[in-house]
Amino acid sequence: MTETRVPEEHESQPPQPGTLMTRATGVGTSVGRSLLLPTLAMVTALVIGAIIIAFSDIDILRLLFDDPGAAIGQMASEVSRAYRALFRGSVGSVNSLSETLFAAAPLLLAGLSVALGFRAGLFNIGAQGQMLMGGLAATYVGIYVSLPGIIHIPLTLLAGFAGGMIWGGLAGLLKARTGAHEVITTIMGNFIAVFFIQWILTTPGLQDPGRNNPVSAALSGTARLPRIFGSGYRVTIGLLIGVALVFVVHWVLYRSSIGFEFRAVGSNPEAGRYAGMNVALVVTLAMALAGGLAGLAGANQVMGLEPYKASPALAGAVGFDAITVALLGRSNPVGVLWAALLFGALAAGGRAMQGAAQVPIDLVVVLQALIVIFVAAPGIVRAIYRVKAPDEKPTQLTTGWGS
Amino acid sequence: MDKLETATPEVVLRTSAGERRATIIGVVLMALAAVVLGVFAFGVPTDASSTFNLSLPTDAIQGVAWTFNSRIFSAVAGILIFALGTDRLRRRHLERTNLALGIGLLLFVLALLAWAAADSSFSLVGMLRSTVISSIVITLGALTGLTCERVGVINIGIEGQLLTGAFVAVILSSAFGTWAGVAGAMVAGALLGALLAWLAIRFAVDQIIAGVVINILAVGLTSFLASRVLSEAQDLNAPARVSSIRIPLLADIPVIGPMFFDHTFFVYVTLILVVALHYGFFRTRWGLRARAVGEHPKAADTLGIDVLKVRYRNVIGGGLIAGFGGAFLALAQISRFEENMTGGIGFIGLAAMIFGRWLPFGALAAGLVFGFSGALAQKVGILGTGIPSEFMLMLPYVATVIVVAGLVGRARAPAADGQPYIKQ
Amino acid sequence: MALVLEGITKRFPGVLANDDVSLSVAPGEVVALLGENGAGKSTLMNILYGLYTADEGTITIDGKETVFDSSADAIAAGIGMVHQHFMLVPVFTVTENVVLGQEPTGFGGMIDRDAARETVMGISERYNLRVDPDALIENISVGVQQRVEIIKVLNREAQFVIFDEPTAVLTPQEVEEFFGILEGLKKDGKGIVFITHKLGEALEVADRIVVMRGGKVVGEALPSQTTMQDLADLMVGRMVDLTVPKQPASRGERVLEVRDLVVLDFRNVKAVDGVSFDVHAGEIVGIAGVQGNGQTELIEGITGLRPAMSGSVQLGKTDITDAHPRDLHKLSVSHIPEDRQGSGLVLDFSVAENMILDSYYDRPFSRGIVMDWASTRDMVSELVKQYDVRTPGIDVPVSTLSGGNQQKVIVAREFAREVELVIAAQPTRGIDVGSIEYIHSQIVAKRDAGAAVLVVSSELDEVRALADRILVMYHGRIVAEFAPDADVTDIGLAMLGSAT
C-alpha cells in the first residue's frame, strides 16, 4: 500500500522534529550559551509583565488621556514598586530566601513528576490530582497512626507517594491497555480528584470536628516536616527530600535499565517494542512513578504547611506550575531544580508583590507562561535580540492522539 | 490484464477486541439491570408513582405530563436492560454493541429519574432543555477542536480560548452591549488561536505543549485582570442581558419545541454552524483541501496547496468559534465573569470531538450526550437522592474518561494530526 | 519548447546535494536520470518541481527563464511529477485525489462530483489507465495507485513529466505496462525524465541517459552506445561487481519451520494466508514479491510482533509461535527490521545506546537494574570499528549517521553474537552501494558460519544475488519456489500471481 516514509536521499538529512526529545543542553553548546536564552526569556517576560501592570490600572489609564506625562510617570513608579517588591520578596532578605526555598520545594517535587513523564513520552497534566490523592493518603496516615516522628514522617511520605502513584498509575494503565491519551485522562483525573476530596473531607472519618466545610483534622505533630533553619523560617526538609530526589531521578533515567526503557519508549515506542521492551508496562510504570512524585508534593503540602490540614485547595496551582517548571528545566532533573528555584522565587516574590504593591499574584503565572513560551520557541527571543543560535532542536513530543 | 485490481477486504474476521468489548458491555448492562431492578424498582413502595412533566409553564399546551407507577416502570426497564445484556454476551452482531449500550443507558437514566421522582414530579422537558443549553459550549469546543485537527493541528488550548473569550465578552458587553461582547470574544479566541498556530507552525513547538501553555497563560491573564480591573470597576462585570428568541409555531411543538426552539441566538448560530461546517468540510473544495492537509500534507503541498496558510486559517477560524463559545458561557449562561469559570469544559469539548469522530454532526451529538450527563447530575442532585452531590458533579468527567478509553469504539484521527509540516 | 536546467546547486546542512548540475529535456524525449541513492537525483527533481529552492542555477522553459517558489508554480509551467512515495491521500477516492487542488466547482465552492468523475474517466480512457473513480486509495493496489498519480499529472496538462523511481513497487509485468504508458506519453509530445537506479530499465526505455554521482553529473550516454557495466562504473566511480561473491550453500539441519501461518493486518484482513516453508542452517532463503503482498506481516508474525491467527512457527524443536521478541533474542534469533528508523533505532539515542537496544537488560551491559556504561562503551567502540560504522563517536545521536551507517549499527547489534537464525527484511533499502556490499557480505558470512538466513526484499535483484532458494509471495501465500538462476520472467509471473 502507499508508503509513508520520507525518502532517504541524503547521507545526513537534517533531523526531523517528531523524532527528537530535547536534551539537557544542546549538543555543542557551552554553559554560557545555555544560560543566555533563559536569561533573555526572563528579561523579556518581565518587560511584558511591566506593560501588563502599567496598562491594567484603570486610574492610570484614565489619567493617560488627561495628562500623559504624569500617567507615564505613575506607570513607571507602579511597575518599579511591583518589581521591587517581587525582588525583595524573593531574594531581598533571609526570610525571603527561605520563602523562595519553601515555595520551590513542592514545585521541585511536582516538576520532577512532570519531567519524568515527559522523558517517557507522556504528558502528565494530572499532577494536581495526583497531589490531592497523595496529600489525602498522607493526611490519613498522618492523623491515624501514632508513631515516633522518625518513623512517622517517612511512613506518611510513603503514603503520599502511594496515593499519587495509584492515581497516576490508573492513567498509565488506561493508556497502556486502551490507548486513552493521558492528556485527557489526567486532566479529567484532576477534576474527579477535586470532587472526591471535597466529599471525603466532609465525612466524619477525616473532617475536622467543629468545622462545616471540607477540611481535615490536623496531622499529629509527629507527622509534620521539621523546619531546617528553625521555627523562624518556613523551609522544611521537604526541600532536601526534593533535592535528593533530583539525584535519584537522574540516576534512574540515565544509569538504570528502567530509565533506559523509559527513554527509549518515550522517544520511539515502536523501536522499543521491536527490541523486546514491554511498552505497556513501561507506560504504566512511568505514570505510576510520576504520580508518586506528585503525590509526594501533595504530602509535602499537608505535612509542611500551616495549619497541617488537608483541604481541596492543598495543591493550589502547583500542579500546573509544575508543567512550566518541567518545560523550563527541559525535562532534565537538574534543570528542573533550577527552574523550581526560579519559579519558587517568583511565587515568594509574587506574594510580596500582591501585599505591598497590590498587584495580583496571578501576574506570576503570566510571567511563568511567557518564560516557557520564550524557552520553547527560542526563535522569538533570538529574533528580538538578534542572537545567533547553535543547532537548537525544536521541542516536539507529540505524534497525535493514537496509541 | 483485464481485471481491475481492487483489493477489497473480503474476509473481515471478527476481532477479539470487538468480542471483548461486547462481553464488557454485556456485563456492564447486566450490572445496570441489577441496580435498576434492585434499587429503582424494588427500592420504592409498591404504589409510588412518578410524574414526568412534559410541558413548561410557558407552553401553549399546558398540563401535559406522564404519570406512571414507579416500580413497574423501573421493572420493565430493568428487564429490557437485562435482555440487552444477555444479547451482548452472545457476541453476535458486534456492530450493534454501541447501540445496545446507548439504549441500555437511556433506559437506566429513565429508571433513575423515575426512582428519584417517586411520589413527586419533575420537569423532564426542563431537563431536556437544560441539556441543550449545557451542550452548546461543549459542542462549540468540539467544533473548534475538529476545525483545527482536520488540518492536522491539535488544539489543547480550547479551554484558554473559551475563558479569554468569556472575559472579553463580559467587559465589552458591559461597556458597549452584547454585539461588542461577542465580536470581542471571537477576536480574542482568534488571537489565541493565532498564537498557537504561530508557535506550532513557525517554531515547531509541540502542539500539545503550546496548547497547555496557552491555557496557563489565559488563566493567569484573565485572573490577573479580573482581580485588578473587575473588582475595582464592578460595572464592567455586568454584561447586557441576552434574551431568548422564541421561534413561533416551532416552539409550540410539545417537548421538542421548548427543547430546541426557544433559546438565545447563540444556540441557533451553533446549530447553523454545525450544518455549515459539515457542508464546508465535505462538499466544498476548501474542505477537500483542508482535509488533505490534515491527512497527507506533503501530497497537498505537491499539488500547490499552501499547507501552512490552510493551517493558520483553520486554527484562527477555530479560535473564532471558541471565542463565540466563551461569549455564550459568559453572557447567556452565567452572566458574569468568575475566575476559572470554564472549569474544564474545553477538555470535555475535546473528548466530544473524539467521541463525535471529528465530524460536525458527531460533535453536536456528543455535545448533547455530555450536556445530558451534566444536566442529569444537576437534576438528581436537586431531587435529593442519597448520592452525594460531588459524585454527580464528577459524572461528565468520568464519562469523558470512559469515552476516550474507547469503550465506545475507536476512531481514526486525521493522519497527520499533531505533526508539524517542514518544508525544505 | 525544451526544458533546460543549468548550473543547479543545492546545499543541505553537511551535504552538497547538487553541484552545478545541468540537464535538458526535449518534448517527446525520454531522459533517464541514473544514480545510486544519495547521488542527488531526487533533490534535482524536487527543485524542478518547486518543492525545494536551488541556491544557484536557472530553470529555462522554451527559452524563458522561470523561478518556482512552490509546486503551484511548477504545475502552472507545465511540469508534473509522479513521486516515488505516492502523494495520494489514503482516505480519499481516486477522483478526489485527481482533482485535488483543481476541483470543478459550482455554487458556493461546492464540488461538482459528476464533472470531476468525467474528467478522470476521460483521461483514463484516453491513455488506457484503468481505474475505478470511486475507490478509496487505501483499498487499491500499488500499480493502480500509480495510474492514479499519472492521471493526476495529466489532468494538469503537464508538458513535462518527472517519474521518481516509478518501477520500485511494480512487478516485471507491471513494469512492461508502465513502459507502454511511457510510449503513449512520448507520442503525445510530452518530455519525460525518469529517475532510476535500475540500469536495465534505463537502457531499455530511455532516449538518453544522464548519470549522477555525489551531486554532480558525471556522464551522459546514448543507450545504444553503452553497457550496464559502463553505467555502473559511472554510477559508483569504480569497478563494481554486480553479484555477491559466495560459495555454494552447505545445507544443514532445519532451523526454522513455518506451518500454515495465518496473520491478519491492521484492517483484520488475512495478510498471510496459510504460509509454510523451512529454512535450514547454512542456507539463505529469499522471499521475493512486490511490496504489500504480506511479507511485512509474515516477518512480524514470525518474530512475535504480530499475533498469529493460526499456524505455527518452530525454531528447531522449540515452538516460537507468538513468542515475545525478548525470548527470541535469547534463543539466538536476530532480526533486522524493515523500517530501520521507525522500528530498528531510537534516533535520539546515541550510537552506543542503540547498539545495546535489545540487550541492555542483561550482563554485561547491566547488572540487575544498574547499567554498566563503562563496559558497554568499550564493547560498542570495538563493534563500531569491527563493523565499519562511520561515525564521529559513539555518543552522537544515531540520527546524524547516514542511512547506510545506521543500518550497519543495526547489523552490528544483531550479528555480533552467536546467531542461529537471521531474519533480514529489506536489509539494504535506501543505502549507498558501499554499505550494500558490506551488509551483503556480512549476511553471507553468517550463512557460512552455520546460521539459517531468511531475507525478504522487494528488490528482485537482491533476492537473486543473495538467495540459495527463492520463494515468491503473492497475496499472502507462497506461490512458487525457484533456484536463484531461474528465468526472471518466470519469477516475475509468479510475483504477479500467474505461477504455472
> CATH first level of the largest domain in chain B: which class?
Mainly Alpha
Strand content of chain B: under 5%
What is the chain-wise order of helices and strands of chain B? HEEHHEHHHHEHEHHHHHHH
User: What is the CA-CA span between the terminal residues of chain C?
Assistant: 48 Å
C-alpha Rg of chain B (nearest Å): 24 Å
Return Rg of chain C in Å: 24 Å
The overall pLDDT average of chain C reads 86
What fraction, in percent, of the residue positions of chain C are helical? 25-40%
List unreliable stretches of 5+ residues of chain C. none
Instruction: Supply the CATH architecture of the largest domain in chain C.
Output: 3-Layer(aba) Sandwich
> What general outline of chain C do the C-alpha atoms trace?
globular
Beta-strand content estimate of chain C = 25-35%
Q: Largest interface: which pair? A: A-B, 58 and 56 residues
Name the poorly predicted regions of chain B. 1-14
CATH class of the largest domain in chain C: Alpha Beta
Main sheet overview of chain B: 3 strands, mixed
Q: How helix-rich are the residues of chain B, as a percent range?
A: 55-70%
> How many separate domains make up the residues of chain C?
3
Q: By helix and strand content of chain C, what is the structural category?
A: alpha/beta
The DSSP helix count of chain C reads 17
Structural notes for this entry:
The complex is a heterotrimer of chains A (403), B (424) and C (500). Chain A is 67% helix and 0% strand. Chain A is mainly alpha-helical. Chain A has 15 helices and no strands. Chain B has helices at 16-41, 70-89, 97-116, 124-149, 158-176, 178-202, 207-230, 256-260, 265-283, 285-295, 297-302, 307-333, 345-355, 360-383, 389-407, and strands at residues 49-53, 65-69, 121-123, 245-246, 262-263. In chain B, the strands form two sheets. In chain B, strands 2-1-3 form a three-stranded mixed β-sheet. The longest helix of chain B is centred in the last third of the chain and has 27 residues, at 307-333. The two termini of chain C are 48 Å apart. Chain C contains 17 helices and 22 strands. In chain C, the strands form five sheets. In chain C, strands 6-7-8-3-9-10 form a six-stranded mixed β-sheet, with helices on both faces. In chain C, strands 16-19-20-13-21-22 form a six-stranded mixed β-sheet, with helices on both faces. Chain C is α/β, with parallel strands linked by helices. At the A-B interface, helix 7, helix 12, helix 14 and helix 15 of A face helix 7, helix 13 and helix 15 of B.
